[in-house]
Amino acid sequence: MRGRQRAQGGGATRAGEASGPGTPGAAGTPGAAAGATTRRLSAREIAALTQGQLVGSPDVTVSGVAPLDRAGSDDLSFLAARRYLQYFQRSSAAIVLCKPDLAAEAPAGPVCRVLVRDPHVALLAVIPALYPEPAWEPGIHRTAMLGAGVGWEEPVAIGPYAVLGRGVRLGRNVRIGAGAVLGDGVELGDDAHLFPQVVCYSGTIVGKRVILHAGVRLGSDGFGYVPGKHGEVPRKIPQVGRCIIGDDVEIGANTTIDRGSVDDTVIGPGTKIDNLVQIGHNCRIGARCLIAGQAGIAGSTHVEDDVFLAGQAGLADHVTIGRGARVTVQGGVIGDIDPGATVSGYPARPHREFLRAQGALYRLAQIVDDLEALVRRTDESQR
Fold this sequence. Notes:
Layout: E1 3-5, E2 13-14, E3 41-42, H1 43-50, E4 53-55, E5 61-62, E6 64-65, E7 75-79, H2 85-90, E8 95-98, H3 100-104, E9 113-115, H4 119-130, E10 139-140, E11 145-146, E12 151-153, E13 156-158, E14 163-164, E15 169-170, E16 174-176, E17 181-182, E18 187-188, E19 193-194, E20 199-200, E21 204-206, E22 211-212, E23 217-220, E24 225-226, E25 235-236, E26 243-245, E27 250-251, E28 256-258, E29 265-267, E30 272-273, E31 278-279, E32 284-285, E33 290-291, E34 296-297, E35 302-303, E36 308-309, E37 314-315, E38 320-321, E39 326-327, E40 332-333, E41 342-344, E42 349-350, H5 351-382
Parallel strand pairs: 6-7, 7-8, 8-9, 10-13, 11-14, 12-15, 13-16, 14-17, 15-18, 16-19, 17-20, 18-21, 19-22, 20-23, 21-26, 22-27, 23-28, 26-29, 27-30, 28-31, 29-32, 30-33, 31-34, 32-35, 33-36, 34-37, 35-38, 36-39, 37-40, 39-41
Antiparallel strand pairs: 1-12, 2-11, 3-5, 4-9, 24-25, 41-42
């Protein structure tokens, strides 16, 4: 299909007054279902999807997925670890994805089983078949506002009250949710999906197949000030860098990523970021990183490829986290971390060292009690 571009001219106009794909005034709301239906899968189909070995009747069917302890007679469930055997033996699930060794240990429990090497990986093949994504309708809602020179490749969907600044560029199959705001010159790659209330400041570039959940803020000014002297107000350092999001990135709700000050802030391809994460200016996050909720990364920090940051991990500014390193929950990093290392605690140190220190700390109370008892006995013997 041909691309579309709003003609140059003064001021923004409502989308209903500009040319655009789809029926003028159509809702075009991302994710709007055109009549979603529930699908059932048989055990035979699940075995084929997962390349697993079917044990039991091939004609048993399911219409949903649930944990072992809450699954009913219409549900598929999964057994991936030995500690869940007790729930498996009492489960009402119709079909269970099982590791072969675990299934052999459980004569009781659901009789229809699909034996797979990794039940979690197998679910990746089954869930899209059980829960297909609803169809979305291309079009631009009549309340959306488009600035001069906005261009796109059909089809796109732009939801109610979305605002696109001058010169915004949208790739094919871009979906923009209600109330989203794109500043002047923002670029979105093919198949990008913005949920409601996403804001991309001017200077933001978003790659292909990126998912931005509700409330994401990209490209706001970083925290950069020159401290004042003798009671002067701190002076703001202009933030003129860009915020660049690579292909296949997913960013959770209410996460904020600052633009660079004089350099760019870059999120590498395939990285997945949870809700409520803060990433400061000039940071460089590598490819395929996993960053869990409430992590905070201060400015000019370099996180190399394949790093995992657990919940509430905190990284000081100007540090480097080596490739494949792991920072555990609430780890506080104040210096460089070697590639492949696992660190914990504050200040973050090797995980085993942290566990030994914690063990010693927990024994400290008993040591103090023993020492006080020894002092009392010594005092009594000297009387």
